[in-house]
């Protein structure tokens, strides 16, 4: 969704057009879930906060200012809601359930894939899941914001309240770890 399309949708939502919520959800539902999941580390809580996020979006739609990147604005709201949930629970640390981590669907656009193609996707997804487990929480969060959230490093630094140098270092460290792990998995077959 472009900045212009989002601006039209959020203004429509602010005026009471609930169909605009569907458009925003379709464009950003997965992103919001991923951002929330990175913070709360629990599928059920991530689903609850994501649902609450879109309900809240109806209430705050009128506060969006066009000069702000809409993706950064959405991510900041979602992240703050997830952090609020953890604070509400007294900073309890939730166990990371890897089997609950968001997974990409293997079926592409409703087309039927061959068994070997599906097998390749499964192997790649499992290798990627294992590689992602080698990342620290901070590295994973930066990578998600950059790759899934499509934010610039400055926006990530602002969102996380971290210096720009720290954010770029975490990103580079995470990418190096992923490359190293995927190379190792590729050579063990």
Please provide a brief summary of the model.
Belongs to the sigma-70 factor family. ECF subfamily. The chain has 189 residues and is mostly helical.
Give me the secondary-structure topology.
Blueprint (H helix, E strand, L loop, with lengths): L2 H12 L4 H22 L2 H18 L9 H19 L26 H19 L3 H12 L4 H8 L3 H24 L2
Q: Main beta sheet: strand number and arrangement?
A: none
Number of helices: 8
How many strands appear in the DSSP assignment?
A: 0
Oligomer designation: single chain
CATH homologous superfamily grouping of the largest domain: RNA polymerase sigma factor, region 2, helix turn helix motif
Unreliable segments of 5+ consecutive residues: 91-119
Number of domain units? 2
Helicity range of the residues?
over 70%
Question: What order do the helices and strands follow?
Answer: HHHHHHHH
Which topology of the largest domain does CATH recognise?
Answer: Rna Polymerase Sigma Factor, Chain: A
General form:
globular
Regarding CATH, which class of the largest domain? Answer: Mainly Alpha
Given helix and strand content, the structural type is mainly alpha
Bin the strand percentage: under 5%
Distance between the termini: 40 Å
Mean pLDDT over the full residue set: 77
- In CATH terms, what is the architecture of the largest domain? Orthogonal Bundle
Taking all Cα atoms into account, the compactness measure Rg is 18 Å
């Amino acid at each position: 969704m472009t900045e212009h399309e989002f601006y039209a949708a959020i203004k429509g939502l602010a005026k009471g057009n609930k169909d605009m919520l569907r458009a925003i959800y379709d464009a950003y539902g997965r992103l919001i879930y991923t951002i929330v999941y990175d913070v709360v580390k629990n599928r059920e809580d991530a689903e609850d906060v994501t649902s609450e996020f879109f309900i809240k979006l109806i209430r705050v739609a009128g506060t969006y200012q066009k000069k702000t990147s809409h993706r950064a604005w959405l991510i900041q709201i979602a992240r703050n809601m997830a952090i609020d949930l953890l604070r509400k629970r007294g900073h309890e640390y939730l166990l990371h359930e890897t089997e609950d981590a968001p997974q990409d669907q293997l079926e592409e656009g409703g087309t039927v894939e061959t068994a070997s193609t599906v097998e390749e996707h499964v192997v790649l997804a499992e290798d990627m899941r294992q590689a992602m487990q080698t990342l620290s929480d901070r590295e994973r969060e930066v990578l998600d914001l950059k790759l899934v959230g499509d934010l610039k490093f400055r926006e990530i630094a602002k969102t996380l309240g971290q210096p720009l140098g720290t954010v770029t270092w975490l990103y580079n460290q995470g990418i190096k770890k992923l490359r190293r792990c995927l190379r190792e998995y590729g050579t063990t077959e």
